[in-house]
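Re: that backbone. Tokens:
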């Protein structure tokens, strides 16, 4: 049963990504940047997944996020990028408990993504995949710079979350006490 749910989720995530890419292409945004980053966190997959599900608590883990407000499956995000606030709305389109969360933007910067959680012993590998469609007025030489800066922000946010979850200050969402951190490797 779990395997069937997993592949159903993969298919749904792929369909959402292809659908968004096609819609963006039709709207004149033909360039899509695909970004991928991973980090290994010294916590169980259940702890890491639960912390990520509590979107409103993510700004506690990284200074790159100013706020996240949730309205059911939709949310409003405010991040700090290059010293400037960047806002967007997103919708969760897939949740596979302790495995993956998929989303797509509904307003603001156009993007889709999926974050997966894989157990590695008593630790968790977190992998983020994001497809981003820059505004059509951007020139081609800017794409490499833009992709690099967004990728840098994603990497920084992942490192911040790793640090927070592995330290006492981050604790684990839904618990009243912080646990001793496990040793983790990787970025």
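Recovered sequence:
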């Amino acid at each position: 049963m779990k395997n069937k749910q997993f592949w159903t989720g993969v298919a749904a995530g792929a369909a959402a990504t292809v659908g968004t890419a096609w819609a963006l292409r039709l709207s004149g945004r033909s360039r899509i940047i695909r970004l991928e980053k991973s980090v290994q966190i010294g916590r169980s997959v259940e702890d890491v997944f639960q912390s990520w599900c509590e979107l409103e608590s993510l700004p506690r883990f990284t200074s790159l996020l100013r706020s996240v407000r949730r309205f059911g499956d939709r949310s409003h995000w405010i991040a700090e990028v290059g010293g400037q606030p960047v806002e967007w709305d997103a919708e969760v389109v897939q949740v596979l408990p302790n495995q993956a969360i998929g989303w797509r933007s509904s307003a603001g910067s156009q993007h889709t993504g999926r974050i997966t959680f894989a157990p590695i012993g008593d630790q968790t590998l977190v992998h983020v995949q994001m497809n981003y469609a820059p505004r059509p007025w951007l020139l081609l030489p800017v794409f490499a710079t833009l992709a690099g800066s967004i990728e840098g922000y994603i990497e920084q946010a992942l490192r911040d979350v790793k640090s927070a979850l592995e330290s006492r200050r981050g604790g684990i969402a839904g618990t009243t006490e912080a646990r001793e951190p496990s040793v983790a490797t990787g970025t």
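Residues 20-27, 137-146, 169-187 have pLDDT under 50 and may be disordered. The chain has one domain: 2-166.
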